[in-house]
Amino acid sequence: MRIYLSRPHMSGHEEQRVSEAFASNFVAPLGPQLDAFEASVRDYLGADVHCVGLSSGSAALHLALRIAGVGPGDEVWISSMTFAGGIFPLNYLGATPRFFDLSPDTWTIDTARLSDELAKASTENRLPKAIVPTDLYGQSVDLDVLEDLAAQYDVRLILDSAESLGASYQNGRKAGTGGDAAILSFNGNKIITTSGGGMLVTPHKDWADEARFLATQARDPAPHYEHSTYGYNYRLSNICAAIGLGQMEVLDDRVARRREIFARYEEALSRPGITFMPEPEGQRSTRWLTALTIDTDVVGKSREDIRLMLLEHEIESRPLWKPMHMQPLYDGAPYHGTGFDEGLFRDGLCLPSGSDMLNDQQDEVIDRIKDLLG
Ligand SMILES: *Cc1c(COP(=O)(O)O)cnc(C)c1O
After folding, report:
1. What are the extents of the domains in the chain?
2. Which CATH architecture has domain 13-248?
3. What is the pLDDT of residues 287-297, one digit of tens each?
4. What's the CATH code, domain 251-373?
5. What is the Å distance from ligand 1's center to 19 Cα?
6. pTM, to two decimals
7. How far is the C-alpha of 248 from the C-alpha of 327, rounded, in Å?
8. In the structure, what pLDDT confidence band is assigned to residue 133 with cuts at 50, 70 and 90?
9. Distance 185 CA to ligand 1 centre (A)
10. Sign of CA dihedral 15, 20, 25, 31
11. Ligand 1: which residues within 6 Å by Cβ?
């Protein structure tokens, strides 16, 4: 049986929730299950936020950027090491990215570098419209520092928390509760899934209202269809939200299991030349995927040696995200960093981390890697 990187993992209650939606005929992009799902995420986050269920995390980012006022020619400063869905919405709006490296201590955006560049940009009158840092592999960015910077320079802060629902930052503060907005993803491979879906989480009621308006074709109040701006069909299906309700029941279990998987790998595979993603003091990552780097000179094998060996045995692993400043699409875009993220891409591997993976399966992954490394 193939061992996957990260698969959907149902609780057993999702089908019942979907049946309830069918019974009431709310087979539509709105309905009581969607309302309940939004409320459930808000309660979980335990903060004074508004939650808007959407068709994907990318859709959530698109709306957040548009509401932040990002338009053609505007700069958005963003973690280079991220997933396509966490940046393509800039292109939808004609905005330009400026890329930032990660801090080696946290593997999240290098806030010292960001701070220096904001100071420079401020004196030159070219501040960005928004900053979009990514909670990489489920680890919260440094919210306190980022919120201070955003306030100091009056720049909108939008957090890409697609991989970090269930993580906490400091003092139990949940990832996804910071900035002007955070985006969540319920894609099939994330911590919890609605088959596909996303959410905009914001402390601003007017942002949430605007998101709901834009996500339902920007319909002005009138009996007929009246439009003073253009919108999108971005709401989350009520059926998908029903799946999400079943998933919210087990969110903490899913995070605990992913963390356990990470800890088992770390315990079994730690050796000179293998570096696991760090976790800053006081923080709790979801450990969405177990991410590590292989120093070929020390270990004697490369990331690709391991990945290809695993693949031969029907075990799925994957290089870390390829930084966006290295992508042909963003060739020539400004980048601030030392290339730490380039090194992560060159040497980094994500191991199978699905919360439904059995210990026996993980042991097989571990044993095969140990055999290869000798
Ligand atoms: C998954 C993901 C997204 C996009 O979410 P979708 O729901 O797939 O559109 C955005 N950013 C990051 C970092 C992600 O991992």
Report:
1. 13-248, 251-373
2. 3-Layer(aba) Sandwich (3.40)
3. 999 999 999 99
4. 3.90.1150.10
5. 28
6. 0.97
7. 35
8. very high
9. 6
10. negative
11. 56-58, 82-83, 85-86, 134, 160, 162-163, 185, 187, 198
